[in-house]
Amino acid sequence: MGEWKCPCNQVHPENVPRTFKNPAKVVVKCIQLEILNKDQSILEAGSGCLRNSFFLQEEGFDVSVVELKETVDRFKEEYDLFEKKGGKVYVHNFPLKEFDVVISTFTIETICPPKKRVEFLRNIYGCLKKDGLLISSMRGVKDVLTAGEKGKGLKCPLPGNGYLTPLKTFIRPFHVRQITVFLEQNGFRVERIFQKSEKIEPRIIELLARKIGDR
Ligand SMILES: C[S@@+](CC[C@H](N)C(=O)[O-])C[C@H]1O[C@@H](n2cnc3c(N)ncnc32)[C@H](O)[C@@H]1O
Question: What is the CATH number of domain 21-147+172-211?
């Protein structure tokens, strides 16, 4: 490893979001299953190029977003349009408002260092109403080449941490059990994993978790 230091301060989160056209599958599933409905107030945390929130807005849902300034600047045109269509954009700081549902897709596993991941989840917890719902998806270990330490990513030496990619993004893929425990430790109860078997590690983990207690 030589002089190599922890990559956390080398990560550029604004490099992470890609310009997908379609919403994440878990969002579509939650509409089809009527888990999402138009009476709910929804916050998307880490909205990237806005693929989910544009879709929800077009479908008539009440949706706000919270994103890092660097990402909002990178997708300025999209964020301006989203606001023009009535969407509320919170930059960097989570809103001091409570929502029925928070959606966060492919975000938690890109946040480095671990304490920031916890802070992100606690912020989500804090802006959910009592019994509020978190809808999330994340990359599993089977989806990430570097997961077995065979790929090109640079392993971060922090225990339990992930990889710095050549694009200066960070990835820490999850096992179902790991994300379940992580959510439980931070005030959520996992109510549903959408993949057929929790025992076979899915490439993509899609889940519903409920805020429990009131901290
Ligand atoms: C891989 S992208 C996913 C974007 C979008 N959810 C999607 O599925 O296309 C992860 C996003 O999380 C955002 N992000 C990282 N840390 C954040 C934080 N503390 N608060 C809000 N957004 C954050 C990044 O800026 C990035 O846009």
Answer: 3.40.50.150
